[in-house]
Recover the amino acids of this structure.
């Protein structure tokens, strides 16, 4: 199972970007997916989350500007980021709890992380 985060880049303040997190491999289903970010010298913080039934939650710092969504048919989770600010500059990661088939014929649940995509917002 792999998570591939992409869509990062450089944008001016006030601009927009949309990140994608594509899940590949042999999976049964994807539960909650979280987007995190980590700025240089700072801890990694969660910015948005979406459950399997599309319930969402956001960090206060991004509420009203970021929107998380998912396309279960494509195993892809999106993070739409509007009104970007220099303070949003960070490496963005996706993390997902995924059910996969196990050797006993059942399902196992495990957390996976993507590799991160850089978002840089200039003032």
């Amino acid at each position: 199972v792999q998570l591939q985060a992409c869509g990062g880049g450089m944008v001016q303040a006030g601009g927009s970007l949309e990140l994608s997190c594509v899940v590949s491999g042999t999976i049964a289903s994807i539960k909650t997916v979280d987007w995190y970010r980590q700025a240089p010298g700072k801890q990694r913080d969660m910015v948005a989350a979406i459950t399997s039934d599309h319930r969402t939650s956001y960090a206060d710092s991004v509420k009203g500007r970021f929107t998380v969504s998912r396309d279960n048919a494509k195993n892809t989770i999106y993070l739409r980021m509007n009104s970007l600010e220099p303070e949003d500059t960070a490496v963005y990661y996706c993390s997902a709890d995924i059910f996969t088939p196990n050797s006993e014929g059942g399902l196992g649940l495990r957390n996976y992380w993507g590799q991160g995509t850089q978002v840089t917002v200039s003032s």
Q: What stands out?
A: The radius of gyration is 15 Å. The CA atoms of residues 55 and 76 lie 16 Å apart.
